[in-house]
Amino acid sequence: MQTPNSKIAKVVIIGRDDSHTFRDLSQMFRRSDAMHVSAEYQTLSAALKAGLGQTMSADFVIVLQSCSYEFGQHEINELIGRLLFGRILCCYGPWCTADGRSHELWPVASRIPAASAASLIELELACFRANIQPLFPMSASEEVFAYRSQFMDVFEPPVRSKAIVISDDCELRTIVVGILAVLNCESTALPPSCSAIRSHLASRSNDIEFAIIDLDTANGDVQECLDVLHTEGRVTTVAGMTVFAASLANPATQSTRQPLHFIEKTELLLQLRKLLKSVLSCPQIPLDSRPAAFRAVVAPVAEAAAGLVVQQPALLSSTPAGVPQ
Question: Per-residue pLDDT tens for 294-308?
Fold first, then answer.
């Protein structure tokens, strides 16, 4: 007898895997016992001609989009029409980040950044196994946010962790602390002040698993704060929040002794959960004396952000803190 947790999802993949942007997804599909890739197509037209949604069924259709106009609107509409009540996820790379602002080909319910795709598919897989209906393509942004948030307790880490959240954006700090609380993480919000960080670290009896720092701070304190986090030696992992995460998450910036994490502000919920999962499941090495890789990417980002007019977002706003209006 098949139980909900034993259901195997049939997956169809459409698009070209450039081996970097969709690396996490590729690893997920190869390792998962809960998903079976039944077919792969390089283009939407090839999948439609093969009968996808007609003679061929799929529990999940995963579309890998590397550039904005890789797929035609008529093809997208036909796919959605054939699988109106199915699970279609368009995982887009960094070149497609602005698509939701400049033009819209895919419904907001289908679009997800490649960096968050693995976490979202895991959430959707749990819904599939529990026989929960997927989002309708016409769902609004608020409905999408609520749908993807209501399952967070199912994935709550069993181990309580500790973190500090550093940003000059008071509302952003509040949002991140609230999300971390749902993820069973005790976090403290701090301004980008070296003295405040030193004082907090000195008051802790145990080390802190990780620090999350806003790289889009409109002043020059980011690098100084990173230096404090390094020299105090009380923080295991440092993650940077930025609207430029997709362009910074490059293997060339990684240090073998200092794991670097970049969090996209437009996908805080999924990427914070991914960070916690990574920190708690992997052996962590305290920050060593070589933070050069982080400095190489933080300095230009902080300098560029200094000229941005940052607006305070609402909790469900479609425009995150740090995004110029």
Answer: 344 334 434 443 333
